Amino acid sequence: MTGTVIKSTGSWYTVKSEGEIIPCRLKGRIRLDGIKNTNPVSVGDIVDFDIEEGEEQTGVIKKIHERDNYIIRKSVNLARQTQIIASNLDQAILVVTLIFPKTFPRFIDRFLVTAEAYSIPSVIIFNKVDLYDEAVMDELEFFELVYRSAGYKVLVTSVETGEGLDKVKAILKDKTTLLSGHSGVGKSSLINTLDNNLNLKTSKISATHDQGKHTTTFAEMFELSFGGSIIDTPGIRGFGLVDMEKEEIGDYFPEILDLKEHCRFNNCLHLNEPGCAVKEAVEENKLAFTRYESYLQFVEGDDDETYRKDIYEE
Ligand code: GDP
Ligand code: ZN
């Protein structure tokens, strides 16, 4: 039989096949793409499995179909270990808020760069707009411009007033979407409001709790009653830049990639090279300084510390 993995709890996988839910496990070793990861099967995977004889209906996964794409998380605790969070995604939505809590541009950019690296289109939703005062509205305007001109879809919403929710629904419809964002930004409220059948809860992680031990986080796929599905990843709010070469990072900032051909040197890293079109664009306010600062931080490789703070300080 063939089905979709909708939940992974480490040793058991929940597989949905022809409307039925079947708990499955892995037998033996399944080798995949040579990726070194802690969990070979991920939510979103299409798998072949055999039904096992027994009291309850369970299955054994024997094959994972080739993935269209996947998104990986670098484990903060286990050096060099990676975890596939989800596969076969149509898009990733990052929900952010400029206050209560504040999402910083570095967090947004790291998310976007990771999604670019895995060729997953991203959408940014600025939520809780009902709470923004004039100063925060100005900030919102700035970021809308920054990300729209980089080519991203940007939505502005309020679960409180209903603003923008129809647009979110239209984007989710009939797609498989990874849902991300700091806890408290309103992800579950947003989804529960759009689909009364769902009752998503998000688990908050505390700084003291999680840093020392191996945390297992369970992604889960939910079907939307109006078509499509979302993958919620409680506890995974950030992505590390997994195995990226300095030279390729600029290619994951669409507006930097566009400028690159105008740099004097074709291997320009846009640091201090003469004739750099990227630096020139920053000076002329044609490229957002926040984006360039993120770029610099990622290239200089001093991002890991911030990354840890980003995913744990909530
Ligand atoms: P999650 O952790 O991202 O799933 O966030 P929740 O959905 O649990 O929301 C966190 C808090 O923010 C809850 O108290 C929500 O009622 C509140 N909230 C969510 N969206 C909005 C919004 O658009 N405006 C306001 N004022 N509050 C919101
Ligand atoms: Zn350059």
Can you characterise this structure?
This protein has 314 residues and is α/β, with parallel strands linked by helices. The chain contains ten helices and 13 strands. A six-stranded mixed sheet has the order 10-9-8-11-13-12, sandwiched between helices. The longest helix is centred in the middle third of the chain and has 16 residues, at 134-149. Residues 202-216 have low confidence and may be disordered. Bound molecules: guanosine-5'-diphosphate and zinc ion (ZN).
Largest sheet: 6 strands, mixed
Chemical compounds bound to the protein: guanosine-5'-diphosphate, zinc ion
Radius of gyration: 20 Å
Structure summary, number of beta strands: 13
* Lateral arrangement of strands in the main beta sheet: 10-9-8-11-13-12
List the helices and strands and how they pair.
Elements: E1 2-8, E2 12-17, E3 20-26, E4 46-52, E5 58-64, E6 70-74, E7 82-87, E8 91-96, H1 105-117, E9 122-126, H2 134-149, E10 153-156, H3 165-172, E11 176-180, H4 187-194, H5 207-210, E12 220-223, E13 229-232, H6 246-249, H7 254-260, H8 277-283, H9 289-299, H10 304-312
Parallel strand pairs: 3-5, 8-9, 8-11, 9-10, 11-13
Antiparallel strand pairs: 1-2, 1-4, 2-3, 4-5, 6-7, 12-13
Helix pairs in contact: 1-9
Bound molecules: guanosine-5'-diphosphate (GDP) and zinc ion.
Offer a concise description of the structure:
The chain is an alpha/beta fold. The protein contains ten helices and 13 strands.
